Amino acid sequence: MTNKTNEIPEVDIVIDEEKGVIREVKSEKHLRSKAAHEKRINRTIYTVLTIISIIWLCPFVFLILQSFRSYLTEGGGMVNYVIPKHFSLDNYRFLFEDGQFFRWYKNTLIIALFCAVLQTLMVLSVSYALSRMRFRGRKLFMNVVLVLGMFPGFLTMIALYFLLKQLGLTQEGAIPGLILIYVASSGMGYYISKGFFDTIPKSLDESARIDGATRFQVFLKIIMPMSKPIVIYTIMMAFMAPWGDYVFASYVAFGRQDSYNVAVGLYRWVNTNDFQGYFTRFCAGGVLVAIPITLLFLFLQKYYVEGVTGGAVKG
User: Fold this and answer.
1) What pLDDT is stored for residue 47 in this prediction?
2) Radius of gyration of the chain from Cα atoms?
């Protein structure tokens, strides 16, 4: 026989004398035990999440600390200490005095801004057409795009490079060449936006069409005001993609420093013989590169989450 003397009863028997009935209510001891158990589980989860967050943040903290390390005062000992002995703004001062870094920064900003505008227009237009219109070949087109999206983009890198070279869009013309490549295939990323448009009732479109509005007017004056989260999400994704791109940008701008973006330029710094001198400057450059993206997420996080969750539906 099992011993049940230490078990806490889940219910207590209560007799309601006024109504003459017997009721079962949750035992107070059982409720306290359940609450304590939930607290222990929550405490464990929070502890694990805190440890994971600390591990995840360590590289970023190291990057920031190294950006304030003075190479002139510490010499070759920069890799021997996690926390610098002497904090200095020498690395940031070098970036502001060096014309190359801000040229790379300007190139990246130009590419990212153009892509943010053009890709957003392309993606939202394709998404709206596939969400609202029914035409022959629609399903086939969506299936083909889905299959093509499964192939890694670097498989076409060599072919795209020679094509851009024939058009004069490499090295000196790397900036417009990169914008062309980033924007040309952006329509394939319609999935999230289409899913968001699918959640908007089609009766709104039909009402506006009955009143004489064209499809473009419906898209611009009715759908867009209601799609602020997905518009902001699309802009952010379009801005971030070229901001940190290295692989394709290094191919297109190969051998032409004035056409580098920040990712390629900073890599060239740490790939020199003077690694110790340029490593701390690389860290300072990384901090300046991360500032725009961080600010975007801080101020637009609400719309970003709404856009992702609103578009994560079956279309």
Assistant:
1) 94
2) 29
